[in-house]
Design a protein that fits this description.
By secondary structure, the chain is an all-alpha fold. The chain has one domain. 77% of the residues lie in helices and 0% in strands. The chain contains twelve helices and no strands. The radius of gyration is 19 Å and the shape is globular. The two termini are 29 Å apart.
């Protein structure tokens, strides 16, 4: 019994470390994308970023002898996953390029709340009144951050909300995706979806693709490497230790995202961001805790 407990604790520790690494890498990816947007348009960034990431995951799939093209790839959950990935990636990249990185990162942390609500509505999972109250509280935190109706309200803040909803839909679709599809295959099609998002936005914006300058090219390469590392670390985290113990470390992305925003982009934090952040994090942690204990 003691050995099993020690093993579980070690697995939780390793899984948590992978999760922290994944969140740090995602924050680095966001930072590089925001930096690249100083000289490149969003459509071109998404296309290059998606092509680079999909190429890496294609190589990994070939090395691991995993088939990229099967009937499961065009299943309904996978088609929905592509649609939500396009929405999530496009609008979140617009958010981090047009609004403060720190506030966009905070709003993104509401994704698990929406996923829990979606799991109850679409998968029939049991969510008791306390967790529903926590979900509502977390969403109120999002409203506190964007401040609809206030003098400082900007429609651009809605971009992060739409991106967050897109990522929540992607996560729900991934839950329903065929189990035969490995993390590398899912990563390959996830990054191809980013290419599609970039192409669509480039057509709408009539983007003229240019050869990136040195700093922009470095930023794009950094974003690709960070994105692949983040995705791989996240998959390792979710497959090591208890989900309830590991998932709580998702919120470390707040520390990295806010830190990079303040230190690298001279962003200023106001009280609505702090209050909204607190409501979102407390609600998310409460839901994780209730998920480990039967709802009464």
């Amino acid at each position: 019994m003691t050995t099993n407990i020690a093993t579980d604790r070690r697995a939780n520790l390793v899984g948590s470390a992978w999760m922290v690494l994944a969140m740090a890498a995602f924050a680095v990816e966001d930072t590089f994308i925001k930096a690249a947007a100083q000289s490149l348009q969003v459509g071109q960034i998404l296309v290059f970023f998606g092509l680079g990431g999909s190429a890496v995951f294609m190589i990994l799939s070939v090395v691991q002898r995993q088939r990229l093209f099967t009937a499961d790839v065009v299943s309904t959950p996978m088609r929905l996953r592509v649609v939500f990935e396009i929405i999530g990636r496009l609008f979140f990249v617009l958010a981090i390029t047009l609004t403060p990185l720190s506030s966009a990162t905070v709003i993104l942390q509401a994704t698990p709340l929406v996923v829990v609500a979606g799991a109850a509505l679409f998968f029939g999972e049991t969510v008791g009144p306390r967790r529903w109250l926590a979900i509502v509280t977390g969403l109120v935190g999002v409203l506190v951050i964007i401040q609809p109706g206030a003098d400082g309200f900007s429609l651009l803040s809605i971009l992060a909300v739409i991106g967050m909803l897109g990522f929540a839909g992607r996560d729900l679709a991934s839950r329903a995706a065929p189990g035969s599809l490995s993390a590398s295959v899912l990563g390959f099609y996830g990054f191809l979806s980013i290419v599609a998002a970039g192409d669509l936005f480039a057509l709408w914006e009539q983007t003229v693709f240019i050869i990136p300058e040195t700093m922009a090219a470095i930023a794009l390469c950094g974003a690709i490497l960070a994105g692949v590392a983040a995705y791989t670390s996240l998959m390792k985290a979710m497959r090591t230790g208890e989900v309830s113990a590991v998932t709580s470390f998702r919120y470390t992305r707040l520390l990295f995202g806010i830190g990079f925003g303040v230190l690298l982009f001279d962003e200023q934090l106001d009280w609505p961001v702090f209050w909204g952040c607190g409501l979102i994090v407390v609600s998310g942690l409460f839901i994780l805790w209730r998920g480990k204990h039967a709802e009464t």
